[in-house]
Amino acid sequence: MTVENLMDKLVSHCKANGFMFQSSEIYGGLNGFWDYGPLGVELKRNIKDAWWKDMYQSHNELACPPSAPSTYDMVGLDCTIIMHPQVWKCSGHYDLFHDFMVDCRKTKKRYRFDQLRGRWVSQGPQRIFVTTMAEPEQEQEDIARRALKFFNLRSKDIERLTFEERVLTLDKLDEADRAKVLGPDTDEIGSLTDPREFNLMFKTYVGALSGEEGAAFLRPETAQGIFVNFKNVVDSTRIRVPFGVAQVGKSFRNEITPRNFTFRSREFEQMEIEFFCHPSQSANWYQYWRNRRLQWYKDLGLDSDRLRLREHEQDELSHYSCGTADIEYAFPFLPPGEYGELEGIAHRGDFDLRSHSEGKLDPKKRPLEVELDEQGSPKHRGSGKDLTYRDDLTNERFIPHVIEPSAGADRATLAFLCQAYTEIQSSESNGKFESRVVMRLHPRIAPYKAAVLPLVKKDGMPEIAAEIYGALKKKFNVFYDEKSAIGKRYWRQDKIGTPYCITVDSQTLVDRTVTIRERDSMEQWRIGIDQVVAEIEKRVC
Fold first, then answer.
1. CA 150 to CA 53: how far, in whole Å?
2. Rounded-to-integer distance, Cα 79 and Cα 92, Å
3. pLDDT of 431-485, one tens digit each?
4. DSSP state, 54?
5. C-beta of residue 529 within 8 angstroms of C-beta of residue 464
6. Taking the CB of residue 281, how many other CB atoms lie within 10 A of it?
């Protein structure tokens, strides 16, 4: 199966079975925005709940040595989406949070500068750089087709063209070479503009004022709400370093070219921890969180062969970063050997707390203006509040270092869907083969934990099935189905990822036992009705 076919099938499967829909689809959709359907909202919620339980609620079970440098505490926050605009000035988002984009003068289309891929193609002395927006498997074919058209050649003349093997992105070309670029949707070279900055924050206005006095932004990340509440958390809970603050919430980035299903979208949900620790221990905590977060994905079913932990090179690091590692997954829409980011674990040092405390914001000055003193340091920048921490045992005062594991709930959901999607070839009685889909989701995150199926709609079987369904429903999200043949009902549950099916049959009427069927192995065993809840609980929790 080609990459394109796999992703097309996955997207189609998600829509047909209620995992995800294009936002505002009846009006043509809105690019970069996705709605989660009845099954999708359960899947995503289960992923968030698993993260919250493992990272926040149950952290003490895993926090003891030798797995962690020491014991630690964890608390939660839920901060607002719109914050004081000066927050984004101090964090660097207002000045630095941007991508470079280029426009095509001919087609009026816009592209991300670092995402336009292409190859050099030559005919005789003329050499041009042909870009494409095609999927990786169609990339070479699209480049060849467009090069032939540009040089006014037919398909049979392709041997007259020379294709350089190396695929480059536009940002790898120097200014002189960019004049030889053939844009992805035009037939003229040199039609792309010079790259320019595009701030990724969504701008809005607060209150009745529509001018810059009322300007604000939808948050591009959840982290800053934790930093500006650092002192509130310490003072109200009397919590001691080291500790973490966990938050799950929506963020918004005005991506230039959202793509690859939900991988890059404009509205998304983050699962973030800001872990505050003593500077002398921060390197050890950084290693701890790198390893623990990678293991979490493996424990929930992502294949180790498709996961990797990649440490950033020095030239990739933010100016304040002491180290950053990405947990990456080999998504099927990427070329072979390439990975997409699932989560970043960043050693941020003391940058954030220091930035929000230094200087003092002058309430008379317009937000986002910064006045410098004679030494060139910000005179009016941060809150001016003391965000240092005092250890009540040693009386030491310091600015804690921060380790930030930041995961995307939407990207995690997409990765688990890609991993789970499996096509099975089943033999029919007439000798033909039929393909069916099995979503091999881990039981903890599966939308339905079990399905209750009476074999027939008579002889008291539906009544017993309803009894079992009612008992399970108090603890889990379960499904009840009595329509069509039992085999079709099994397959129906397989394709939405339900790990266990519970069948009430004629034997149930004799000894009050039921058949439990496991999705992946299709193994079946019998168990007493009064044991069903405990059996499912043991297997899905």
1. 57
2. 19
3. 667 789 999 999 999 999 999 999 999 999 999 999 999 999 999 999 999 999 9
4. I
5. yes
6. 17
